[in-house]
Amino acid sequence: MTLIVEKHVPVAMRDGVTLSGDVYRPSAGEPRSTVLIRTPYCKDDPAHANTWINVLRAVESGWAVVVQDVRGRFRSEGDFVPFVNEADDGVDTIQWVRGQPWSDGKVGMVGGSYVGISQWLAAAKNPEGLIGIVPAVTADDVHSGWLYEDDNVVLGFLAHWVSILLASAGMDENSRPRIAGLERNVAEGKIRTFHQLIEEAGEFAPYLRDWRDRSRSLVDPELAGHVEVPAFVIGGWFDIFLPGTVASFVRREAMGARSRHDRLLIGPWAHGLMGGWFPARFFGPASSFDSLDPTSLQLGWLEEIRDGRNHADHPVSVFSMGADEWRCFSSWPPDDARRMQLQLRSSTPDRAKTSADTYGVLSLEPPVPTIGGRTFFPGYKVGANSGPRMVDALSARHDVQTFVSDPLFEDVEILGSVTCSLKVAATGPTPVVIKLATLDDNGSSELLCEGSSYSSGDGGSGKPITVDLGSTAIRLSKGTRLCAYLASSDFPRLEDGPRTSLEVFHGEGGPVLELDVLRLG
């Protein structure tokens, strides 16, 4: 096959700004359907252009591919303001594709992270010709999916992501040290809050202030529910966007927008690390995204829609850790899953007991350090900080309270959401952070999932809260115990804003885990 590559093709937007794209297409034959990738990470970088599909293989399969720099990035004109222009610019680009002589008028969008949310934004406008989207490792809700976990700012991710955006934009020699200092100052604890990050980034990232002031109105929080075309949602159990990824899929069914072609795929992956291999754990060769042949997987799905072929009977595919195998279901959580409650008890009652009814969780300097989990820090491509890590050292800290369950009386598979309900008292505003781990007979604990809530302060009287720990899939053997670490900080994953000591009530039974499980007998 002979193919044509057209570089730096201008595409005019409705307001006169011109964006730049590269077109890859067969040199002969009838008009083709098109895969569209809109990226802020440079269309001319093969690593980014081929992250989710192999461009040349897509052309060999009969597709045209357009890779475009979004507004204000690299060869495209305009100012880059994250999220703001992607809906209209995406629609205008789709219309441009449909008008080309090599196009048959049908367009599918693919890509992850920011490239993923740009798909949700454009698709919510329901442009003519768009047949489906494949938003990967992303969230459709900017406030709760990108910037905050409950009301806690995900500071480490924001600092690293903004630094990547700024460094790749071609800073001059005088600006580079200041940009490099953003991440370093977070890591060293010199920048601990969103406000400090905003002030330090200054004119280089003016959008940060806007995110703080109106994050709830930047993007419709129910965006995925307004998309009429099918969506193939891809996520990772240790990806920073996991809660938002799952929420976008579930939201579509709740709002009556789910298509018979919708699919959900979640593997044991972190952001930028799709091999299933972490420093502390390897989930086997089948866990790699590459083992699924992503190019054929996504193109096959788009062709299924385009050609009117039958949809999958089991649209949900998740990798079950522990079993280290893929499982397929018709819904998420699975229809057969049942909600199970596990009572937790303090494992350090003498040290932590403050009264007949409460255990204390101190607020100390420095804050509790982030260990593994859903992180996106420097070294993310080798899993230096993310994923399943041993966290039993947390139990030795006086600002961490440890709770454990009784041993499981049967084999189970957690398949769905995990929450922890408890009653806490706080004299002032403070995060409530919970990390859930598996606990073996030797006292070693491996992080499974995590989450946080925020207490506005109740004067010490106490109030019930529920902390969402996200979703997971893992097989646990009979006799396994689960361990929950409770703290009021998790830095630098979360900003170290106002915090105070907590008291956890146990007189009413103490913390309770709720999990979606299949009992295996």
Brief account:
This protein is an alpha+beta fold and 521 residues long. The protein has helices at residues 46-49, 55-60, 86-98, 114-123, 142-147, 155-167, 176-187, 194-201, 207-218, 242-254, 294-306, 349-352, and strands at residues 3-12, 18-26, 32-39, 64-69, 103-112, 130-136, 148-149, 152-153, 232-238, 263-270, 277-278, 281-282, 316-320, 325-329, 338-346, 358-361, 401-405, 412-426, 430-439, 445-455, 463-476, 481-487, 502-505, 512-519. The strands form five sheets. Strands 15, 16, 17, 18, 19, 20, 21, 22, 23 and 24 form a ten-stranded antiparallel beta sheet that branches. It has a six-stranded mixed beta sheet with strand order 1-2-4-3-5-6, sandwiched between helices. Strands 9-10-13-14 form a four-stranded mixed beta sheet.
How would you describe what is shown here?
This protein is of the alpha+beta class. The protein has helices at residues 46-49, 55-60, 86-98, 114-123, 142-147, 155-167, 176-187, 194-201, 207-218, 242-254, 294-306, 349-352, and strands at 3-12, 18-26, 32-39, 64-69, 103-112, 130-136, 148-149, 152-153, 232-238, 263-270, 277-278, 281-282, 316-320, 325-329, 338-346, 358-361, 401-405, 412-426, 430-439, 445-455, 463-476, 481-487, 502-505, 512-519. Strands 15, 16, 17, 18, 19, 20, 21, 22, 23 and 24 form a 10-stranded antiparallel β-sheet that branches. The protein has a 6-stranded mixed β-sheet with strand order 1-2-4-3-5-6, with helices on both faces. A 4-stranded mixed β-sheet has the order 9-10-13-14. Strand 7 (148-149) and strand 8 form a beta hairpin. The longest helix has 13 residues, at 86-98. The N and C termini lie far apart (55 Å). The mean pLDDT is 93.
